[in-house]
Design brief:
It is globular and about 65 Å long. The protein has a five-stranded mixed sheet with strand order 2-1-3-14-6. The chain has a four-stranded mixed sheet with strand order 8-11-7-12. A three-stranded mixed sheet has the order 15-16-17, with no helix packed on it. The longest helix is centred in the C-terminal third of the chain and has 19 residues. It is an alpha/beta fold. Helix 13 packs across helix 14 and helix 15 packs antiparallel against helix 16. The chain has 17 helices and 18 strands. It has a domain of 218 residues: D-Maltodextrin-Binding Protein, domain 2.
């Protein structure tokens, strides 16, 4: 079983524990919403009750909120859906398996439903909806996050200040390696580079993964689908990361640590971690760590098939009236600032402190049963109040320069039915090797040949050919 599979099994009980009983206003219908977060059952119940006050008045139903942490989130969610757990609306974060949402009966197709919810449809541009369309069916409502991102890292500002280092001067992996060595010399007891749920480096530095990474566009350019794991670029990256690991620049056993970056920084004396660089993501990680972080940006902004990787789905097994209520709730969270602030920050005076109409900050002390979630895990993070430091200063952020738009932006890959077992097998093999190689944990001289051989035996060449044919057809239709 893979590391992610073990994490999922370990978290199965957490899904039930993070929920709360259906107690509020029992005379009204109730729907369950499941999302990303690490809040306790008591915090989920408190937020569900506050959200229910809004929905009961406007729509005549109440809401139960449940959460599960990012580690193994989709594995736990899919198991819960398979077992028939009561979930009507859920956040989905697995870009590898987006096509399976409808084909496996997890998510209700939304084409017809959206005619009934024009405000929800209008809240997002058409290209966002295109990114959620598989086989002609809109499978989910995309999270209203920016559709561009840059690949980079976050570094503790206090450490950089002590070294006299400038994050803006770190432009390449060579520069980053030199900075990590300086950090190691400055703090021999700490670990310069730590993981985020086992991931030290995003695989897709400068490429379009075409949804699942099994066949990519190198450089986010061109139209030739390539097996990234069979390239010299991937081999060189693995060798670099292993060298860093051997030099003590990366926390030991990184791919085995299923904890978030904020906790890893505190637990291991970490200074740097990988991050998709965008304004709201930067606010989230500053807020989570409680200390100022500087952005290290390695790529221009890119817009590709991974740009919109969070979505919201309606359970296909929920009765029609519950599906309608789920979409009413989703429309509310996409269009109403009060509700959006509640889902992100919690309850004013309990979970956060409001500075003015448009800005909030953390509360001190934090409540024992804290509401904990992230910007990127919201249906619409564009309408929420801005989080600032307690002194009122905003999180500093310099937007990445330049923009590269992949020719495949808007393309969605749906494997041919006969290839779905091969796709699942290849993804399991990737789960087994990729993070371990890109954290330096495995020696690529030994592990990379095995990785490539197993992928080939599982059918990756057929998947790449199928993806190429679908991309060619999509580009031809697009004109």
């Amino acid at each position: 079983m893979t590391r992610r599979g073990l994490a999922a099994l370990a978290a199965l009980g957490a899904l039930a524990l993070a929920g709360c009983a259906r107690t509020p206003q029992a005379e009204l219908p109730n729907i369950t919403m499941h999302t990303v977060g690490s809040s306790s059952a008591a915090a989920c119940e408190r937020i569900g009750a506050a959200l229910s006050e809004i929905t009961a008045e406007r729509y005549g139903f109440t809401v139960t909120v449940t959460q599960n942490s990012t580690a193994g989130y989709n594995d736990v969610l899919e198991h819960a859906l398979l077992c028939g757990q009561d979930i009507d609306l859920f956040c989905y974060t697995d870009t590898d398996n987006m096509y399976s949402l409808v084909t496996d009966g997890k998510a209700a197709p939304l084409n017809a439903w959206l005619e009934e919810f024009p405000a929800l449809r209008a809240s997002l541009p058409q290209d966002y909806w295109d990114c959620m369309t598989y086989g002609g069916q809109i499978v989910a409502v995309p999270g209203n996050n920016p559709n561009t991102y840059a690949v980079g890292f976050m570094a503790r500002a206090d450490v950089l200040d002590a070294l006299g280092a400038d994050a803006a001067a770190v432009r390449t992996l060579d520069d980053l390696g030199a900075l990590l060595q300086r950090i190691k010399d400055y703090d021999p007891e700490g670990w310069p580079l730590v993981a985020h749920f086992g991931q030290v480096l995003q695989s897709g530095v400068g490429l379009d993964p075409l949804n699942n990474g099994l066949g990519v566009l190198m450089g986010n350019t061109g139209t030739t689908v390539v097996n990234w794991y069979d390239t010299q670029e991937f081999a060189d990256l693995c060798a670099r990361m292993h060298a860093w690991y051997e030099q003590g620049l990366i926390v030991p056993d990184a791919p085995l640590t299923a904890i978030p970056n904020a906790r890893a920084v505190a637990l291991y004396g970490g200074s740097v971690f990988s991050q998709r660089v965008g304004h709201r993501n930067i606010i989230s990680v500053n807020r989570a760590t409680g200390q100022k972080l500087d952005s290290i940006i390695l790529t221009p902004r890119v817009r590709n098939t991974q740009a919109l990787n969070i979505c919201w789905c309606v359970n296909a097994r929920s009765p029609e009236d519950e599906q309608r209520r789920a979409l009413q709730l989703l429309e509310l969270l996409c269009t109403d600032k009060q509700a959006a602030d509640l889902m992100l920050y919690g309850i004013e005076g309990v979970d956060y402190r409001r500075i003015d109409e448009n800005t909030v900050t953390s509360i001190d002390p934090k409540p024992e049963e804290e509401w904990s979630t992230v910007h990127w895990g919201q249906p619409n993070s564009t309408i929420v109040s801005t989080w600032v430091w307690p002194d009122g200063s905003e999180v500093e952020f310099t937007a990445p320069q330049g923009l590269v738009v992949s020719p495949a932006y808007g393309f969605t890959y749906t494997p041919a039915p006969e290839l779905r077992p091969a796709v699942n097998s290849c993804l399991e093999i990737v789960n087994k090797y990729e993070d371990a190689l890109l954290s330096g944990y495995l020696d690529p001289e030994e592990a990379l040949p095995r990785f490539r051989s197993e992928l080939k035996a599982a059918g990756i060449d057929d998947i790449v050919a199928d993806k190429q044919a679908q991309l060619d057809a999509w580009l031809a239709q697009k004109g």
